[in-house]
Amino acid sequence: MIQITLPDGSLREYDQPLSVHEVAASIGPGLANAAVAGRVNGVLVDCEFMITSNARVSIVTSQEPDGLEILRHSCSLMLSIAVRQLHAHAQWRTGSALGDGFYCEFAVERPLTATDLPRIEARMRSLAVTNHSIRRHSNPSPSAPFDHRSLYRLGDTEHLTTGPHVPTTRVLQAFALDHISGTQQQRIYGTCWSTHQELEQWRLPPHVVVVSMDDRQTTFAHAVTERLRRSGVRARADLRNEKVGHKIRQHSQTVPYVVVIGEKEKVGGFVSVRGRSGEDFGRMEVEAVCEWLGQPGV
């Protein structure tokens, strides 16, 4: 007999090993359809993960931050496969969730351009609506987190990547590709949300863009962006691995305020604020920026 303890403290008993998805289905069909992953004894695992002994289990959906990040991580996997299907010369290097979306980096013989993005996105949509399964080759121990790459199969294609991933591509619907950079080493960036309504909300012109200096500030810059949103400011983060001067000049043409985060800002827990007309408002604490930008007329 296997005893499963749910987040509300309730106990369920099963007479044989079962997957995370089967636990969700035993609770209700709605939860089973919404499940993108699970937590077994606090560790994130795929929906197909088999539970063979007593455990604490929770079902992860796209409505929580971990679930949304898994959606974005799986979109990165789908992007890598779409690019390789369309451009056999492209060699995948790395990819992951990133802020509001995801990215993939490729080594290419001939550079792709922004005009290639609609076709790549269309191929991703084809993969999504075909509802391919995404399955890991082996079932790890619940004491071994998904912190290393494993072989995952999407349709008839195998990919070495970290997990967990969504169980099927049908949940990957609200996404878009929005940028490509580099020449021989190229990165394609996209955004992904749990619903089309959230995607359309993200597409609205922001009042503030949070710009990171390099990859070291990614986590802090995304956290600042989320804090600004909670305060009522329409904010977006630009976490692309490009020169910060280029990003500032680009956004200063259209966005009222640019919040710049470098290594000093990250370590000190503050940000630097600039205006559209070149004003330098100096360094501010994050809470002070939220309060200031939330004032009428700012």
UniProtKB/TrEMBL annotation:
Keywords: Aminoacyl-tRNA synthetase, ATP-binding, Cytoplasm, Ligase, Metal-binding, Nucleotide-binding, Protein biosynthesis, RNA-binding, tRNA-binding, Zinc. Its EC number is 6.1.1.3. SUPFAM superfamilies: Class II aaRS ABD-related, TGS-like, ThrRS/AlaRS common domain. Residues 1-61 form the TGS domain. It holds the Pfam family HGTP_anticodon. One of its GO terms (cellular component) is cytosol. One of its GO terms (biological process) is threonyl-tRNA aminoacylation. The keyword Disulfide bond does not apply. GO terms for molecular function: ATP binding; metal ion binding; threonine-tRNA ligase activity; tRNA binding. It is an enzyme of class 6 (ligase). Gene3D superfamilies: 3.10.20.30, Anticodon-binding domain, Threonyl-trna Synthetase, Chain A, domain 2. The keyword Ligase applies. This is Threonine--tRNA ligase. It comes from Pseudomonas fluorescens. The gene is thrS_2.
